[in-house]
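=== RUN LOG ===
request id: a7f3
mode: sequence -> structure
chains: 1
length: 155
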Amino acid sequence: MGRRKYKRVKKKTSYDYVPDTNGKWVKINNKFILESKIPEDETLKKELNDLLKNEPFIKKRVKHIKDIKKKIYYVKVWILTEQNDLTKLKNHDKRGFKKYHLDHIFPISEAYKNGIAPEVVADITNLRFVTRRTNLKKSNSITQKSIDVMKKLLK
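=== RESULT ===
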């Protein structure tokens, strides 16, 4: 990646390299493309890869999501969620795959559908530790409590 200072121009019998004034070239799939002409999908994939660089646990959690914008949204929410001081929450010491799960009271999927910012969904007041069974049963349903929490956060 980086600036390509010359572009290849064909002469009658050979190729010549002349200065390129079009802008920055980047290498994608072994082809050089002008940065301004990169397809949106490629830009989003680059953003996703930058977010997931040091997040192997989150990478596993989003591999099933096909929509790249939704995947980026989920990654941002989970990164912001983990940055909170989760020790303030009840049952934080019992956290584990088969014990207690970290639950977003207002579901991430519904927040994505409604265009709510990741910072709001990841707020500590939207988090709680619940038993595994309760969390799986709740899934992405919206309860009155989740509506109240979101109203409070959006004020």
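=== NOTES ===
Residues 1 and 27 are 6 Å apart (CA to CA).
The beta strands are 6-10, 15-19, 25-28, 31-34, 100-104, 127-131.
=== END ===
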